[in-house]
Amino acid sequence: MLSQKSVLARLLANENISVQQGNFESAFFDVENRVLGLPLWKEMSPDVMDLLVGHEVGHALYTPNTITPAELEAEGIPFAYMNVVEDIRIEKAVLAKYPGLVANFKRGYVDLMEMDLFGTKNKDINTMGFMDRLNLKAKGRDLVDIEFSEEEMPYFKKAMAVETFEEVKTVCQELVAWLGGKDDQNEDEGDTNKVEITLDENSEEGDATAEVDLKEDDLADLIDKMNGESSNSDEDGEKVDQSGDQDSDDSEEEADEADSQIERQPKEKPEESSVGPVDNGVPTPDLSNLPEVETENSQNENMKDLVETDGSLFVQGMNRQAFDQLVNPYSKVLESREKHQEYLVQQGGEEYQATGYDEFMTSTKQVVNLMSKEFEMRKAAYRSARARNSNKGSLDVNKLHSYKYEDNLFKQVTTLADGKNHGMIMLVDYSGSMYPNLPSVIRQTIALVMFCKRVQIPFEVYAFTTTSSSKQEVAVREASSNLTRFDYDDLTLNQLFSNKMSKTDFNRALKSFYAQTVQTRYLPAMERLGSTPLNAALLGCEYIIKDFLKSNPVHKLNLVTLTDGASDYARVIAGVDYRRDTPHQRRGTKLIMSIRGKKVELDSYYGGGTENTAKIMKAVSGPNVTTSNFFICSRRDFTHEMYRLLPWDSTAQKSAKKEMAKDGVWVVNKQDGYDKRFIMVDKSNTMSGETEEFEVETSATPAQIARAFKKFSGSKKGNRVVAQKFTELVA
Predict the structure, then answer these.
(1) In this predicted model, what pLDDT tens digit does every residue of 313-347 receive, in sequence order?
(2) Domain 315-353+421-686 carries which CATH code?
(3) Of the four listed, 26, 363, 488, 670, which is most buried by Cβ atoms within 10 Å?
């Protein structure tokens, strides 16, 4: 689904944005880096997915990337307010541009309401704050019945009518001024001190007493003012009696004047409290007293509960930029290899020269000829079996005389089916455990490469190992995603052969590659044996296959691995989306990774390499790719592998031993993610281009001659059997 939604998002956004699914709590769009993030929720219907994609595409199309939340707050606009009003604008715009999303949005919001994402369950929506009701009405539209007062209606209409980002900012500023002032006024009305002021201390209680509502800050000013105005003294310093008519009237006027000042003060206070410090004459609004958007707070909290918490972790695979850092082209490999060869010859003399190369190539051609003959025969059989005869077209004049008893008087045209174009990609294991068998694997690889060259099949060969180069690891980390991802940093992919090599480079590559059969202990730094990053190499095959098919018109591709065991266990590198509050990094955690749009579940425990390899290979290869494995091993490894694949079947075990003894190879179908596995004991040299020598002493008895001939014939038979079965798979 992710692959389809990625394509959909790019088409809707009209640009090649990056779509990533990760351990996010919510969907988002990074307007600066052009990345659309989709969360991995426990429950996500297709409509909710379409809603999230459409909403974030709206941000991609219409939200500018020139303003930050800090800048918004500096302009007096809370980010929550901006988010509500901006969502109204971009959703209205994206639905107008793509009307087909309207139904998905409606159904998606219904699902989110049922999930109580906005925290409205068992609540009377109409008693909530204005911004909450605006948010719910904008999202639910005709799905929810929400009331707005006459005072609120103008602001509601302005928010729903925004068209540009500047209008959004203007409306938000108006909402801040209105809701902030309204909040301060309510605070003034509720937070007052009732002060009883006695104007005549000799009067009866209640006759000359004024009860006024004051704030604490205003009380001190009033007391000072009244002390100065109401305490009048005569010339003798005696206090004037305020009980007289004239004096009483004067006192009442002064009290009225004081009351009028008290009434005016609260009216001026909201304007003063709604602004903060003045900078260059422009007041900065104080956002601390604004009512919060409770629905958005509830949404943020509830989305945490929607995130998958069963111990699984969504990890990113290998991206193109990282792959480019991991691959060494054949030109670089050749240069490194030849310099290393010169150094070895200088240090060790003739011991490290590629002796016996010409003899090996001569004997290998016999196997290659056998394979190519088998391949051409199978191609011809394929075409003949699918040949079609056509009895329509031109008349055959030589048959006109037989028109009375022959119905078919037209020339017969036979159309042969087009043979499929084949291709081959090989991965050679350069792990430390391959050391004893590496010479045989090298000879095996050369035989396969020569076969491809002979029948004109496009091919590429890569060796995979791990590197100790910190420089490469730094470059890979910088090129990789900053999200939680699969650990492939120490992988090295060395390109050994390609059908695009010139004849000179091809011969140089063959000779220097064969030289490693006698230099296994002293390989170039770039090709030194390491661990077994087979799964990481298969992730890189996604781009190898893609580039190969782009440059070669291949109908049937063969992916061949030459390795002796399981891959390293899966490790991850934590990214910015890694949730520290969940136990993700424990061994045994289920890893979820998207490969070519397919969601693959991997295991991160020791021993899970084989199962992970099968899953990754299936996702990487696709429908038109045939997979095979050459497992060249010792007798002991063969026994171990046989018991692993056939743990309780003694009959099948006997059959496997018999097949190995007879043909020198045990062929296993549909196992460990491969269509075919060729398990061969190194001693047999099967399909490596080498055969047992037919040597007998002059004094040998007939029985000894018979045994030597049987041994010689058996090695050639093993070559024929493997060649036949392999070409059957390829063709």
Answers:
(1) 888 889 999 999 999 999 999 999 888 888 877 77
(2) 3.40.50.410
(3) 488
